[in-house]
């Protein structure tokens, strides 16, 4: 398991928009925003989304909590 990038694998259930990161803004597109499809490290919802995905995988492979 790759724990260093675990938070990057959580799927987002709601629509989250963010400002464009510095260095990636194109001239003429300064007012556009980014739509997140996966969670980012530092996003408050990242730990919860990753936990839901991990829990679903464990249950799908027939591991259960006691």
Automatic annotation (TrEMBL):
Matching entries from Pfam families are given as: RVT_2
Q: Where is the Reverse transcriptase Ty1/copia-type domain?
A: 1-65
This protein's name: Reverse transcriptase Ty1/copia-type domain-containing protein
Organism of this sequence: Brassica oleracea var. oleracea
Q: What is the lineage of its organism?
A: Eukaryota, Viridiplantae, Streptophyta, Embryophyta, Tracheophyta
